[in-house]
Amino acid sequence: MAVVQEAVTGVIPKERYLLERERVLGSLMLAPAVLYIVALVGFPFFFALYLSMTDATVGHPYGSFVGLKNFLDIVQSPLFLKALKNTFVFTIISQVIVLVLAKVLALALAGDFPGKGVIQFLILLPWVAPISIGAIGWLWIFDSQYSIIDWFLRALGVLGPNQWMFWLGKPTLAMGAVITVHVWRMLPFATVIILAGLTSIPQEILDAADVDGAGFWRKLFQITIPLLLPIMSVAVLFGFIFTFTDMTVIYVLTRGGPYDSTQVLASLAFLKGIVGGNLSVGAAISLFLFPLLLAAAILILRFARRAEVM
After folding, report:
1. Which burial class, exposed, middle or buried, applies to 71 when counting CB atoms under 10 A from its CB (0-12, 13-18, 19+)?
2. The domain that contains 229 carries what CATH number?
3. Alpha carbon 162 to its chain's center
4. More exposed terminus of the chain, fewer Cβ within 10 Å: N or C?
5. Is the dihedral of CA 119, 123, 129, 133 positive or negative?
6. Is the pTM of this model over 0.70?
7. Is the peptide bond before 291 cis (omega within 30 degrees of 0)?
8. Closest CA to 279 of 38, 84, 47, 39
9. Is residue 237 part of a domain?
10. What pLDDT, in 10s, does the model give residues 28-45?
């Protein structure tokens, strides 16, 4: 009927006119995804905000309103300050190593060579495999008595017959161990992103650089890296988000020890809120991740935008 009316009168119905507008149609198409994200992320966030302003525990889940008391208490806690410092150390060091190694692997995988598919599969395996299983495997590798690293070092004569490294028992070695495992986990993801950026660089630009006599390092620092800065910023952003909120590696390997030397905000929030049963304190600690991640996302996206303009 609407089509007949339009053909007779020449007037487009109001509903059809609105759907033909790009902004209205785009909003309608995005609405289901937005609603899903709000339900998936928004509800837990506001519920955590509610818990953080109460004295809720596992035995008393609703609690009484205490305002900002939980935030003031955890800010004055030496354990929280140590976990905050460890979070930055864990994130920054691991992401720098991931970015450098991912760039090297992406450059190596950009060319054609025999067995490339097998190498790509092995590189992607840590990302697709369940991290809990991988972390348990690393737990055996760093074991105080059966560590394969210690046996290898002993075979090379670096360690004596009765010497053991105790990788997860010493603060510095434990932080190095969890950073190593996290780099092993995140490296495939960053490599795939940077490799996708490498394949998008026009071949004409590289051919022109070869004609001008540019060598490998000159092309790398004057062409490849500048053109990859926007997509590398995306890899860094996702890496920061995953690292800031990750606790699986630390929980499986060290539980935050020894002496809380590997305790980060995510693991501390879990131990206080879930294991310790203090829901309000755990929620307050977890909410400290939000402004940190928001500030990091804004800075990285601004840098990416400037890199695109340049």
Report:
1. middle
2. 1.10.3720.10
3. 39
4. N
5. positive
6. yes
7. no
8. 47
9. yes
10. 888 888 888 778 877 888
